[in-house]
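Sorry to interrupt, but I need a hand with the structure work. Please put the record directly below this note.
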Amino acid sequence: MAGTPRSNFGFSGEWHPTPGWTVSASIVRRGHTTLYPSSNIQNAPYVLVDAQIEKRWKHWNIALYGHNLTNSSYFTRGLSGGYVVAANPRQLGFRVGVNF
C-alpha cells in the first residue's frame, strides 16, 4: 500500500508530578514509505518527537507544546508531475482552553 511505512515504532509517556499538571512526550520512528498516489516518490525513514506541559484547573487548561521537535523533513503526499506536499516543520505553541 502506498503511504504505509515498512516499519514503524515509538514510545510515549505521561507523567503527573502534582495534581493538575501533566508532562507528556512521544518519539516515533517511521520507516521508508512511498507516497500516495504516486509510488515513484519516496520518503526516507524519519523520527518525530512531540512534547507537552499542561496545567488544568476546574474548567480551564493551559499548555506549552512542541511538535516535530527534531525538525524532520518528510512529505505527506505525492502529486502528479513529481510534485510533493511537505509536512509541517517544527512547531512550538501555547494553548488556552475552557470546558463548559
